[in-house]
Design goal:
Layout lengths: L11 H7 L17 H9 L2 H5 L10 E5 L3 E2 L11 E5 L15 E2 H4 L5 E5 L10 H9 L3 E5 L10 E7 L2 E4 L4 E3 L4 E10 L2 E9 L9 H35 L7
Parallel strand pairs: 2-4, 5-6
Antiparallel strand pairs: 1-3, 3-5, 6-7, 7-8, 9-10, 10-11
Length: 251
Amino acid sequence: MAADMVSHDIPQERLLELRPCVDHLVTEDDTPVDSIFSEKQQRLLTEPLFSSWAAEGEKRTFVALANVGLFYSVRQPPFVPDVLLSLDVELPPDVHPKPFRSYFLWEYGKPPDVVIEVVSNREGGEDADKLAGYARIGVKYYVIFDPDCLLSDQLLRPFRLEAGGYRDMAGPIWLPCAGLGLQLWQGRFEDVDDTWLRWVDKQGRPIPTGAERAEREQARAVREQARAVREQARAERLMEQLRRLGAEPEV
C-alpha cells in the first residue's frame, strides 16, 4: 500500500477504526466481459507488466488490474476501468477480505496513474461520464482505445490531467510517471491477428509478454548453440590443418 497512507502518529488500531465501512458496497457482480477481443486486450495490457516490465533504476512496485472496481467514495458507485496502473503501491498480502477486493482509493492512498478504456459499444460513457469522472478523482493519464471507431474516427485518444481537466496529448504517447509509452501494434496475440494497444519502452519496443520472452530466450539459446557448433567445427578444421603440416596440436 502507499507509504503515505501510514501515519506514525496514529496507532494501527486507530487507523483500522477510521477505515470506511465497505460492507454495503458491491465489489463483484459477476458481469462478464463484453467481448473476446476486450478480454484479450485487457490481459495484453496487464500480463507483460508483471512478466517483463521493470522501471528504470530500482524496480518499482505497482498494481495493474483489469475490470476491477475503482472506488473513490462509499456513497457513489465505482468506476470499472478496463485497465488501471498505479505506481509505487502494493497489493495487500491477502486480497480476499472485502476492504481489499477492489481498488479503494483510501486504502492505496492515491488514484491510479493510468486508466485505459477499451470501447466496445456506444453506451459506456468513455468520452463523457468516465472522462469527467477520472479527471475529478485525479487520474493523471486517461486513454480511450476505440478499435471499431464507435465514438469517433480516432482509434486512440490519450489525455493528460492539467488544472483539474483533461487535455489531448499530441504525438507519441509517453507517460513520464511510469517510464512507459503506449502505441498501436499490428500482430498476433493468443492466436488472434489484430491491431492491439501495447505498452512500449523509450525506443518504442513493445514490453514483451511472458510467452514472447520465452520465445526470445529460446531463440537466443538456439543462436548460442549454433555459434558454439560453428566454433567447434572451426577449431577441428584448424587442428586437422596443423596435423597435415606435421604438427600435433595440444588438446
